[in-house]
Amino acid sequence: MRKETERSFRQLLSEHDRDFLRAVTPGVERAVREQEFDNGFSACAKDVIGPVMTSLRGMMHDHGLRSEIVVTRRGTASDGKITPSSIAFEFHVLTDPETHGFPVTTPALTFIADPANNRVLVHENSILPFLGGHVGMIDQCELDGVTSGFVEKHLLAIAQKVLRGTGVT
User: Fold this and answer.
1) The pTM is what?
2) Quick one: which of 93, 119, 126, 156 could link to 114 by a disulfide (CB 3.0–4.6 Å)?
3) How far is 136 from 103, CA to CA, in rounded Å?
């Protein structure tokens, strides 16, 4: 293609993009912003959070302990309920009461995307039978604040609670 023609096409496309962006409604802008955040969270889960969780999972496996990494993609149910993107580290450990038929619990640390507020939420479930624990949000930060050190700090804290409660440590 000749340079003149290419320049004309690029100018035409640029004008089209500007006109299109002017017509975008606030709801669409929000949806686009949330999708971009989810894409960033997915990359963070793959490149930062996942490798730390995989390393801990390997160490636990070496000691005969089971765990699982669960990745959830953002989705909308037929009733309109939104499931946010998340990545969770689940501890599949049995406590003594569970071996005697009491309900099995699955302690977990979950990093949850909150695109509406531009935050990553950290949710802990460290409840163990007869020992108690905590369920709820324990921290939050911007997407850029999710570093290997941040993930390691929270995984170590919950591992100390859960493994101590199972008599492993």
Assistant:
1) 0.76
2) 119
3) 20
